[in-house]
Specification:
The complex is a heterodimer. Chain A is mainly beta. Chain A has no helices and eleven strands. The chains are: A mainly beta, B mainly beta.
């Protein structure tokens, strides 16, 4: 009954490779996010999708491409991996309705990406 | 641009002592979230504060929000080792992603 799940949990790869991380939520939420946590634990938003549409796209290299096949899934594909991409990537989800006064976000377990 | 500042960033506490973590944010927001992260783990939601003057308590942790001062506090009462973790505050405006503080790493020792 996992709420937000990610695969894989660990990803070790060589520079220049292409890799994908998958995220699924079973909370019935309509908005999903990708956050990056660096080695100093700083968390920063990368992308957000609402009902499969991209609504937030922070200053992220275009080597990163999110894809949302449906409301419950948000994947992250990374091309030409670089050393600086090493980090923990968290997926999150929430409801996003203007009438709601809050939209608490629930986080997945994270994917630790190590680029060698 | 919405910014969130936490302090202190590191906190070494003795068991049984009290302490407070402060979270300031830069622009108007009526919501504040506190998360806990254990090493190598995900973020666990602790508190959601939705209005000025909101106060919530869970065990030895109590969080409050002053939207006029743009300040939230997380007060720790009689710290125990199990509270050792990194605590993040975050805020957003309706329909936008969370902006996080840099986190406060709490270490409780006997």
């Amino acid at each position: 009954d996992t709420a937000v799940s990610q695969t894989p949990k660990y990803l070790v790869t060589q520079m220049g490779n292409d890799k994908s991380i998958k995220c699924e939520q079973n909370l019935g939420h309509d908005t999903m996010y990708w956050y990056k946590q660096d080695s100093k634990k700083f968390l920063k938003i990368m992308f957000s999708y609402n009902n499969k549409e991209l609504i937030i796209n922070e200053t992220v290299p275009n080597r990163f491409s999110p894809k949302s096949p449906d409301k419950a899934h948000l994947n992250l594909h990374i091309n030409s991996l670089e050393l600086g991409d090493s980090a923990v990537y968290f997926c999150a989800s929430s409801t996003q309705t203007a009438t709601f006064s809050y939209n608490e976000q629930f986080f997945g377990p994270g994917t630790r990406l190590t680029v060698l | 641009e919405l910014k969130v500042e936490q302090n202190p960033l590191f906190l070494s506490m003795q068991e049984g002592k009290n302490y407070t973590i402060y979270c300031n944010y830069s622009t108007t927001s009526d919501r504040l979230y506190w998360y806990r992260q254990d090493p190598g783990k995900s973020l666990e939601s602790l508190f959601v504060l939705l209005s000025n003057g909101a106060v919530k308590q869970e065990g030895r942790l109590m969080a409050s929000l002053d939207t006029k001062a743009r300040l939230s506090t997380l007060h720790i009462t009689a710290a125990v080792h199990d509270l050792s973790a990194t605590y993040f505050c975050a805020t957003n405006q309706a329909g936008t992603a969370l902006i996080f503080g840099k986190g406060t790493t709490l270490s409780v020792s006997s």
